[in-house]
Design a protein that fits this description.
A hairpin with a 4-residue loop joins strand 24 and strand 25. This protein is an alpha/beta fold. The strands form six sheets. It has an eight-stranded mixed sheet. Helix content is 36%, strand content 19%. Helix 6 runs antiparallel to helix 7, helix 7 crosses helix 10 and helix 15 runs parallel beside helix 17.
Length: 829
Amino acid sequence: MIVPLDRVPDEAFAQRLAGDGIAIDPLSDRVLAPCDARVLQVHRANHAVTLAARGLEIIIHVGLDTVMLKGEGFTPLVKAGDEVRTGDPLLAFDADLVARRARSLLTEIVVANVERVAAIEPAAGPVTAARDVLMRIRLVDAPAAETASAPPREESIASAPIIVKCSAGLHARPAATLAAAARRFTADVRLVKNGHEANARSVVSTMALEVAAGDAVTVVARGDDASDAVATLAELLATDLDAGYAPAPQPSPPSAARPETLARPTTEGVLQGVPASPGIAIGNAFQLRDDDLVPEERAADPNRERRALDAAIAAACRQLDALRERLEREGRAGEGAIFAAHRELLEDPALVDAADAGIRAGASAAHAWRQAYCAQVDRLRSLDNPLLAARGADLRDVGRRVLHLLVGGDGAPREVPPDSIVIAEELAPSDIASLDRARVVGVCTTMGSATSHAAILARGLGIPAVAGMDPRALALPTGTRVVLDGDAGLLDTAPDAARMARIAERQAADARRRASELAAAASPAITRDGHRVEVVANIGDVDGAHRVPEVGGEGVGLLRSEFLFLHRHAAPDEDEQTRSYEAVARALGPERILVIRTLDVGGDKALPYLAVADEANPFLGERGVRLTLNHPALFRAQIRAILRASVSGRVAMMFPMIATLAEWRAAREMVERERAELGVPAVPVGIMVETAAAALMAERFAREADFFSIGTNDLTQYTLAMDRSNPRLAPQLDALHPAVLRLIERTVDGAHAHGRWVGVCGAAAGDIAAVPVLVGLGVDELSADVPLVPAVKARVRTLSLEACRATAREALDASDGAAVREIVRRRHG
């Protein structure tokens, strides 16, 4: 399977420092020559082969961090100087060993000397070695004369000998880093080892020098900026360029809601992914394969092909309308909006124009359409913004729908056997929405993330799901009995009978427990010693508001107002927003509070109609209240709408991502100005505590703000300096880390000093293990996702305030989140 370089989780390849080309997700344990070539080098760790073909230097690099295996699991089948033909075996590897011990099996095939390349056209989708084209390369018309072996005859500048720090020597990644640095200078830069030299601009040349850790290397440069070049490369060589890349085990925190968890990811037969939808499922693996095959590439009648394309697009629109209407009838209008957005994608003129151009050039409608939407998908997926990149999955879904209609399909959902855990490379939103809940018990994908539309839909359906799964899951035979843990992000591919029996018992017990919790959900959450904790819900639309009373929610602690702004081409106006907020308030009733968070976009959420400059670190840039303050017309319309809707219920307003008093005051001043103009009563106005700055300044903010709501997801990410959208870091992001708990303690103390209340609206509020700690720290309100409200209330009723305070004191002095969870388990079960 072809994978674009942009999606390789290694900056040396993703940023094309090592060269340009493609990656493949291999299903074989042999590397075959992609073309006729001469072998330039077999790396001493046997994980990479470099070929020379028509003046190109082609690196084939198996896996990521495989250099750390030092040759274990790899068998070279060629040596430097050998001539090979297309399809000849180059090396073999133990796929199981390498997959277990390397970061990834993704195999990169890149052209290192990109200066010889005018353009690269990569293939897409599944390919067969020695049969299908991987990529087409157009060379520059007139390559410059080779000068690499003859450095200019100018006075050279040399560094002192440098001891190489890289633990695996100068393999592809550090060689690429050095090459990128060397290319910034006009000087000719060489690396010299034991009398042999390499062109520092060339990844292949540097790798061929075979520099190991501890070897002494000298940097030699000639040219106008030789001194700067030598200093820069010498500094790089003196550092460990592999620092931060060595693979290390990353244990997942145990699932607080489920005592029975699967074995650790290192256990035989257990594969690791990223939790996307909670729950645990036992079922039979069902491999859902994509079928984007096009029978004919060329067509004789462009007019007929264009009519066929128009008809297929119209039929797809009707199908999407039917999907949206069905979801709305089921009370899932928020999810139905996804397919309204899909319909808009079908009307994108750039997409249709590209397909039309292909048809006019002689392509069949199916082939032209496939080329057009695949190009757009690749473009979206190459973007740095993770939300926009994830929308590539939506466009792919739309494209496939039309394609299937063009090649004779009817777009009907694929038949899935009962008791299935669906496994796929990627599932589109329509795949999830079309699943028969009576037959599908779990979903597992090797691509995607917990923020994708497919994951959102899975959570809405209550289907356990794992994304970003180890690609070995795709090799499981259909019918294999497996266990999917959506809480821990694991797939047990060989569970024994005893384990399945225990999990089945746990599932039955969980079902009984949930029924009991729901039956008592209307009762308040009062500890055994009489302390009341308010339990409210996080929602994203009016449908969620209708469910709050059903689960015993005492209000809404977080209305994510983004539901009104996403999946559209223009911002909602003041009147539309007012109607929506009023509908939510009326659904809750006059006795339940409704806390509306103002627009929180930026970072991982973008609006196509809102111009925001590209940012190197969007999570540290213009997001939340920073963004809305910079778009005052947009902000003012939302503030006015919230104030107008406040007459319909107990409405409060809060601002996201507050970090400074200046931001708070500017936002609060706008509220007061608009309130005076509208002539409506004052509403409580608070802030979200998502930054360390807000937590540390809580006492100062509490003199002016009416309440605090702690967003533990962002507070954890900023405190631990870990991007919560990074699946490699996800297991370490634990809101129960003592550093985060100390900031929560500081927030509560500062708020209570001025009589302000504090809620928690992040994922920690619905984490059963976190509840005793948060109660012990003095949190007044817990705002959890709607399905979790009964469980949180039931948990509070089992506790005593004094015991929770003792737990919190011990937790503050723990070493990490795992230690805190063990404290909670020991004290509260």
